[in-house]
Amino acid sequence: MSPSFLLLLLIPLVPLSLLAILSLIVRPKPIRIPIKSRHVFITGGSSGIGLALAHRAASEGARVSILARSAKKLEEARQSIKLATGVEVAAFSADVRDYDAVSKAIDESGPIDVLIVNQGVFTARELEKHSVEDVKFTIDVNLVGSFNVIKAALPGMKAREGRGPASISLVSSQAGQVGVYGYAAYSASKFGLQGLAQSLQQEVIADDIHVTLVFPPDTDTPGFEEEQKSRPEVTAIIAASSGSMKTEEVARRAMDGIKAGKFTVSCNFEGFLLALATTGMSPQRSFWLAFLEVITAGPIRLIALFFQWDWYNAIEKWSKTKNK
User: Fold this and answer.
1) CB atoms < 10 A from the CB of 214, how many?
2) From the record, what ranges are coiled-coil (predicted)?
């Protein structure tokens, strides 16, 4: 038997051996999160992705609670869900920056099986043009507000008995995977959710609570429409390369990821590539995806560098035009 033939026989052993090793070491193990007949609590549930998630959870037979600041929008959301699904949802008016108000709402709602931390605010503006108050408001709502909601919900979630696996999901953004011109404050607040989610998963896995981090792209929400009116020209040029998604499609993909117990949920192909490029120390339940992350590390880095080249080229061209 020739050495070249032996080499051909050995080549398949490398990926097969890698798959075998990964199947033994990926953690946490795969899980399914039931939705039907369970309590799903959604912050930022009066509009956008949160409202779409509430519609989906109600249509799948969940007991749904939504929380937001505006009592008027909450009532409109409650009526729209009832009209579409026939399900009565509970609505709570509270500001996620106020821990006591959030804690009171969660106590009134009862033990939570699936917590979706979805609230968010953003303004696209160069850091130099941001007021200190703007930056603090963004981080307080997006990041500190998430701490408040989770801290308030955790005791009840840990105390559940015989109710099966629970879930805590944080809705981040693709701007929480890669920094974008004009998104310094927003990206900082959303990048923070990555560290929160990774640490939290280690803390709650023993309580059968499973963490999911959702990375939507630009999504056709009321907030996105407002942001487009004031975003810097360069931000618009960069964002134009990827387009946006419908709210209902983002909610569908997010809910599917939550039910599958995924740690990272991408909503489109570009997001999937971003997840591969930025996975770092994130948990991975699927050894097939872990295999893909390992073997594509180099090529994906090349793709990431191409995107950076494209973005910096756009900034350079804009800068030259501006200074003429």
Assistant:
1) 30
2) none
Three-state secondary structure of the chain: CCHHHHHHHHCCHHHHHHHHHHHHHCCCCCCCCCCCCCEEEEECCCCHHHHHHHHHHHHCCCEEEEEECCHHHHHHHHHHHHHHHCCCCEEEECCCCCHHHHHHHHHHHCCCCEEEECCCCCCCCCHHHCCHHHHHHHHHHHHHHHHHHHHHHHHHHHHCCCCCCEEEEEECCHHHCCCCCCCHHHHHHHHHHHHHHHHHHHHHHHHCEEEEEEECCCECCHHHHHHHHHCCHHHHHHHHCCCCECHHHHHHHHHHHHHCCCCEEECCHHHHHHHHHHCCCCCCCCHHHHHHHHHCHHHHHHHHHHHHHHHHHHHHHHHHHHCC
- Residues 42 and 65: beta-carbon distance below 8 Å: yes
* pTM to 2 decimal places: 0.88
Beta-carbon contacts of 261 under 8 Å, excluding residues fewer than 6 positions away, are 30, 31, 32, 33, 165, 167, 210, 212, 285
Average pLDDT, the chain: 88
Rounded to whole angstroms, the Cα distance separating 48 from 40 reads: 17
What amino acid positions are annotated as catalytic residues? 172, 186, 190
In this structure, are residues 262 and 289 in contact, taking their beta carbons and an 8 Å threshold? no
Choose the most confident range, by mean pLDDT, from 104-108, 274-278, 283-287. Answer: 104-108
User: At residue 75, does pLDDT exceed 80?
Assistant: yes
The mean pLDDT of 45-74, rounded to a whole number, is 97
Work out the angle between the directed axes of helices 297-322 and 233-240 (0-180°, nearest 10). Answer: 140
Q: Which two tokens stand for residue 8?
A: 């051909």
Structure tokens at 317: 């061209």
Model pLDDT, residue 70: 96
